[in-house]
Protein 1
Amino acid sequence: MSSDSIRLDGQVVIVTGAGHGLGQAYARALAARGAAVVCNDVVAERAADTVAAIEAAGGRALAQVGTVATPEGGAAIVDAALAGFGRVDAVVNNAGQLRNAAFDEMTVDDFRAIVDTHLLGAFHVTQPAYRHMKAQGYGRIVFTSSSAGMFGSPWQASYAAAKAGLVGLCNVVALEGAAHGIRANAIMPMAFTGIGEGGPPPYPPDVLEDTAASLQPIAHLMTAEHCAPLVVYLASRDCAETHRVFSVGASHVARVFVGSTSGWYTPDGRPATPEAVREHLAGASALDGFAVPESMNDASRFVGANLPSGPT
Ligand SMILES: NC(=O)c1ccc[n+]([C@@H]2O[C@H](COP(=O)([O-])OP(=O)(O)OC[C@H]3O[C@@H](n4cnc5c(N)ncnc54)[C@H](O)[C@@H]3O)[C@@H](O)[C@H]2O)c1
């Protein structure tokens, strides 16, 4: 393992939502390692604050004010990188917001706004950046998922759907990008940033206590700075990973994955009856002997590999 420091000198990194919270910490950490950082935010003062902090520390950055939530907005961010610094080496899709509500009270407008910001926002920025990366034969892309999306969180149906969708987007960008030197990973950060402040209560009252209890042992470690080192690594040339999801924050980093159990097969290869499904589903759900497929085809091969021998 190399002990050389990870540097991004001469590299240009876009960070969306760089004006506050995690995005600001990422932008500052990337600039501290030599990257020229395009600091996007929909709030002008926030983007300017981050650029001022980077410049005060001797780094290079430019502010780009606009939304990720439209195709034009995404293109403008990539254009700003090309106009300002001449290239795009990495994109950190981070911009985000919350509009929590109980599922039966969630409005379609709020649901759409969340999907537009997180999921379509990442598409709008990443697609034009990917085209440049493909042409230059190199790129790094970070998508921001969330444990709310991968594991579930009450009152966050819109957010969770968008965040789980980002893992699907990452999977495909990683597979398609591999031949072009493009590596894509998703992160699930955890930090107190004030996201959602001023909006509706973040969690239903009946789970608030459990949420507080679950966070209590790690609350003092939940800073944005605890999440930034992973992002610097994933955005750098040193990044050896692709097609992965990492949980990060509170002093830890861990891989999160979607696996498949080896399951239950009908003995004769014929369709099961609903009653047989009822009988065998618990066993088919047992976590011994699971696999973590690397693609849809890999998942199909896993199903085929476990076929019981005998006539079908
Ligand atoms: N804080 C956490 O624990 C946590 C956990 C999981 C995932 N995340 C995700 O991490 C990302 C950053 O969250 P944070 O906690 O730092 O939030 P934050 O509110 O501190 O920062 C988000 C920034 O994004 C900007 N933004 C919002 N909508 C935008 C848009 N359409 N275009 C451009 N900029 C926009 C905001 O102005 C803000 O500056 C989000 O995607 C969030 O969902 C955060």
Protein 2
Amino acid sequence: MTKDYAYYRKAIEGRSFPLAMVDLDLMDKNIALIQQQAGEIPIRIASKSVRCRYLLDYIKSKLRHYAGVMTYHGREAVWLSSHSDDHYLMGYPVVDKTLLAEIGLAGKEGKKITLMVDESSHVQLLQMIAEEIDTVFSVCVDIDLSVDFGPLHFGVWRSPLVDEEKLNALLEVLENLDRIKVEGLMGYEAQIAGVGDQVKSQSVKSAVVRILKKRSLPKLRRWRADAVNTIRQAGHTLAFVNGGGTGSVQSTREEKDITEIAVGSGFYCPHLFDNYQDFQFHPAAFFACQIVRQPKEGVYTCHGGGYIASGGVEALKAPKVHLLPGAKLDVNEGAGEVQTPVFYKGKEQLNIGDPVFFRHAKAGELCEHFNELHLIRNGKIVEIVPTYRGEKKSFL
Ligand SMILES: Cc1ncc(COP(=O)(O)O)c(C=O)c1O
């Protein structure tokens, strides 16, 4: 069966709009592809890019090698851990004292949550709270893997741990903190994993990005390997070394120290992940809005549609019309707050009441707009499952 416009229109016939959907057949293919890219290295699911408990469990059940979940909020980690024995790695530092105490108490009850740290104030705060509630925190040290080329910062702004000196200073502080157990090291090479290097409308920029990616790889690999050694020499036993993201699985797995790779976006494959030279996933998650007006021939105005992705503001972050080749958003109106005009002159016969399918730019945001995901298999809705939002959980 061709997964074209008619296929999905039929699948959702009679449903109310807008609706979010995940094609399980295509998600299965994405899971298999990610597993193949990672080889024997376990995958840690980046929950920020899934935001649905049912699908977190589903993906886990399909992965041959699974390391746990990388959460994006401490409260989320506590909530998820109350339902499962998985290991939860908080991908970002938590400095909310009340929440840290909750996480500490969950730890005392046997829940496995590891917190991310990258500076002395993080670990000192954890030590203080651990003393108060009489526990020990498991932590992961986050090193910075961005690479500077002269004035150009190629990467993201996360950890201040950019070199041995900074890492050693943190390790010295840790020597005196008896309630902190260093169990992991993480380095997220965002400039490889999260930056498209084959953007159709930006061929020159993409060529430059490919060169920079290639040049930054040896540097970040050396730093991650050195950091692993330094932490081990300081007497810590690293239970895991985490790296990567959807766009870097194949390069991250080549590093000998890596024990797990974090992946989230690749399961849904939002449209920013169409722009990579080395792989192509299947668009498995999208949403449908209904055509409610036709102001002019070739213009179909849908109700809703403003599901813009976060991050740097640029046209690439807008949702893209899916399955109607040649269809475009209006440059001025874009994906509007309450309505979205779509310009289309293709062969599909569109009428008022029909759906227009859109793919979001990034994976996480879709589930922040919808309470439910309609799961499609073999051209039919087989189940409707709640998103985090549908379970009244919003972590932002
Ligand atoms: C720490 C960390 N690891 C991995 C990822 C990769 O996530 P994804 O595969 O959804 O791009 C991210 C994304 O921001 C991240 O922050």
